From TrEMBL:
Key words of the record: Iron, Iron-sulfur, Metal-binding
Pfam families recorded: Fer4_7 (PF12838)
One example GO MF annotation: iron-sulfur cluster binding
Gene3D superfamilies from the UniProt entry: 3.30.70.20, 3.30.70.3270
Protein name: 4Fe-4S dicluster domain-containing protein
Domain 4Fe-4S ferredoxin-type span(s) in chain numbering: 5-34, 42-72
Superkingdom, natural source: Bacteria
Record flagged with keyword Iron-sulfur: yes
Signal peptide: none
């Protein structure tokens, strides 16, 4: 079974640098141009959480530690359904 993950982004602290967007292998991250945070930045957002593989590349590349990735095992996925 493929790895799964859950990305949580602190949109208020995100500066929209797009480092996470460029390193995501499944291309599920984007800068949300429709929602500006109180600092005037467009934060990163997730398009399709089901496609997250839990690699944590995004969290590793975030200079402001705005991203947390939780790796889900089969038991966690079964409990969500």
């Amino acid at each position: 079974m493929a790895n799964k993950g859950r990305v949580t982004i602190d949109k208020e602290q995100c500066k929209g640098c797009s480092n996470c967007v460029s390193v995501c292998p499944t291309k599920i991250l984007y800068l949300d141009k429709d929602n500006m945070n109180s600092w005037g930045y467009y934060p990163a957002s997730v398009t399709d959480m089901e496609k997250c593989i839990g690699c944590a590349n995004c969290a590793i590349m975030c200079p402001d530690l705005c991203i947390v990735v939780e790796r889900l095992d089969n038991k966690n996925k079964a409990n969500e359904k």
